[in-house]
Amino acid sequence: MSRIFYIFIICFSFFKLSSQTTDSEDFRIKSYFNRDSIFSLRGKVEDGLLKLWFAYPEFIKGVREDALIWKDNTIMLYRDTFCEKIKDTMLVYPDLDDMMTYEYDAGMFYTPDSNCIAGRVRYEPFFRKMYGNTKEEVLGKLHKMAWVPKIYVQNIYITKVNNIHKKLQKVSNELQKLPKEFHKYLKNIGGTFNWRPIKNTNGTRMSLHSFAIAIDISTKHGKYWDWVKDMDGKFEYQNEIPIEIVQIFEKHGFIWGGRWHNFDTMHFEYRPELLLDWGPILK
Q1: CB 217 within 8 A of CB 189
Q2: Which of 4, 17, 69, 157 has its C-alpha lying 20 to 30 A from 141's C-alpha?
Q3: How far apart (Å, rounded) are the C-alpha atoms in residues 274 and 55?
Q4: By C-alpha distance, which of 192, 114, 112 is closest to 147?
Q5: DSSP state string for 32-87
């Protein structure tokens, strides 16, 4: 009996010591919850963490030096255990840091080079937590809206999370004001919500259409790298989508797949964290 009691005391003491060590380590990691101080934290906290906090105020209540802090107090680490990753590894095994590594250059038109992958790297747990972990969860948050109704009639479904439905409505309203020669790029869109994996990923990576935060405009005029590659897998950049359309989407928080080396010029997705430019915001 005394031996069992002795073992219990040792185990309890070890557990208590382990808990204190963990608490002590957590105590040394500073946390920040005042969103007004985001800009003063630059240099103290990873810029990518600050941009995610700034871009998604409905869900992110603060940051630690190494993590996002969600409003339900979930901690989501910024980096995983991999030391360094090449681009292809980032696409398959990303973390939040990888997602924020490459800069997205909005604005004027350019031909993207092999380093243009900003937005293609997606840490899926981040999107699942925000928009829905299952098809049923996403379906429960959808909003039906008329897409460019002054040009032609087509209803689409987009998520209400982060008020994306309202932002896409603003995009639709502005696109309708473009001259008539732009209308052909807005008709017969490829779609919005579609719970599915990305093509050629063996079902391991979900498309952002799954979360109803993406839209494909005209498939007739859209270009996709996988459709034009040769037998050796090589391809040249192609695009028909006018930059005027792209700039309206970017203005409201949507990035364009035409700025990727592996281009998808009909594709737009809501990624405001990649469109933040601290300069104009600080003015």
Answers
A1: yes
A2: 69
A3: 9
A4: 192
A5: E--GGGTGGGBTTB-HHHHHHHHH-TTTEEEEETTEEEETT--EEES--S-S---H
C-alpha distances (whole Å) from 64 to each of 22, 42, 51, 127 are: 15, 13, 13, 20
Q: How far, in Å, CA of 104 to CA of 72, rounded?
A: 30
At residue 216, the 3 state secondary structure works out as strand
Q: What is the DSSP letter of 214?
A: E
Distance CA 145, CA 168 (A): 9
pTM over 0.85: yes
Domain ranges of the chain: 31-77, 132-282
How wide is the angle at C-alpha 121 spanned by C-alphas 161 and 259, nearest 5°? 90
* Inter-CA distances, 15 with 11, 25, 215, 273, Å: 6, 15, 51, 41
Classify 170 as helix, strand or coil. helix
Cβ contact 71:61 at 8 Å:
yes
pLDDT in tens, 137-192: 999 999 999 999 999 989 999 999 999 999 999 999 999 999 999 999 999 898 99
Distance in angstroms (rounded) separating the CA atoms of residues 117 and 112: 9
Quote the radius of gyration of the chain (alpha carbons, Å): 22
